[in-house]
Design brief:
Helix 5 packs antiparallel against helix 9. The longest helix is centred in the last third of the chain and has 25 residues. A 6-stranded antiparallel sheet has the order 5-4-3-8-7-6, sandwiched between helices. The protein has a two-stranded antiparallel sheet with strand order 1-2. It is globular. The protein is built from 9 helices and 8 strands. 34% of the residues are buried. By secondary structure, the chain is an alpha+beta fold. 48% of the residues lie in helices and 20% in strands. Strand 1 and strand 2 form a beta hairpin.
Length: 256
């Protein structure tokens, strides 16, 4: 991931700390030696960063090595609670999840990525690798496409330039022209569809949550197995329910 070059300034040092945190989050707890092997930094460099991160609460030491500290839980809860869409949507997600018996997500956008703010699971919901706090590529998920459709086109172009359109399954949209065609359809229908584009075997439907100027605040997405989320249930019944739900959220955002 990194190299142990000389002349590290403050920014490079910060990036090394982020490398350590990312490695522990993605690959699990690790000792100083294991982190040095993973990241190709010297043990002395890893040790200095780990000691600082531990003292400040960003890492915690356990039997298996260093893990992410619970300080991040406080940061995460604070950040989520500051989000207005989360505050108006979270308590209502259970209603739609119970009615459809599927997984329902509240999604927002930050730094060109979709972020799962909260979720609710119906009795038939299936578990995938996604989770609250998980960041998703906007072009590969229904919740992301619902947001992209109402973003300024120049901003979407800039996002594609920065992030690209990487494939996540064989069905992911990787063509700019195809993406823009789908976004136009989202604006016409009011909902976005995902046919195994982000996760194999999973279909999803999402509706954008807009402000008074039709700018996206986020989206609400319903996801489930492709053998269940299909046909008119996917293209008519779920959209009708979602649009009514989202309209209520937009009113609450406008006047609360």
């Amino acid at each position: 991931m990194g190299s142990d070059g000389a002349g590290s300034g403050p920014v490079r040092a910060t990036l090394k700390s982020f490398d350590i945190l990312a490695s522990v989050r993605e690959e699990g707890p690790a000792t100083v030696t294991e982190l040095a092997d993973r990241l190709e930094y010297s043990k002395s460099t890893i040790h200095r960063h780990v000691m600082t991160l531990t003292e400040e609460g960003y890492l915690a030491e356990g039997d298996e090595g260093y893990r992410i500290g619970l300080l991040y839980l406080d940061y995460g809860i604070h950040t989520r609670n500051e989000n207005e869409l989360y505050r108006v949507a979270d308590s209502k997600l259970d209603e739609i999840a119970a009615e459809l018996d599927e997984k329902v997500w509240c999604v927002t956008e930050e730094d060109d990525y979709g972020v799962f703010l909260s979720s609710s699971s119906g009795k038939h919901a299936v578990k995938t690798y996604t989770r609250v706090g998980y960041r998703i590529p906007l072009h590969a998920f229904a919740g992301g496409k619902a947001i992209l459709a109402f973003m300024d086109e120049n901003r979407v172009e800039a996002m594609i330039e920065r992030r690209g359109l990487s494939p996540f399954t064989d069905d992911t949209i990787t063509s700019r022209a195809e993406l823009f065609e789908q976004l136009e359809q989202v604006r016409e229908r009011g909902v976005a569809f995902n046919y195994e584009e982000g996760i194999e075997g999973i279909h999803a439907v999402a509706a954008p949550v807009l402000d008074r100027n039709d700018r996206p605040r986020g989206s609400i997405s319903v996801a489930g197995p492709a053998n269940r989320i299909k046909g008119t249930y996917m293209t008519e019944e779920i959209p009708e329910l979602l649009l009514g739900f989202v309209n209520e959220l937009e009113v609450r955002l406008a006047y609360e």
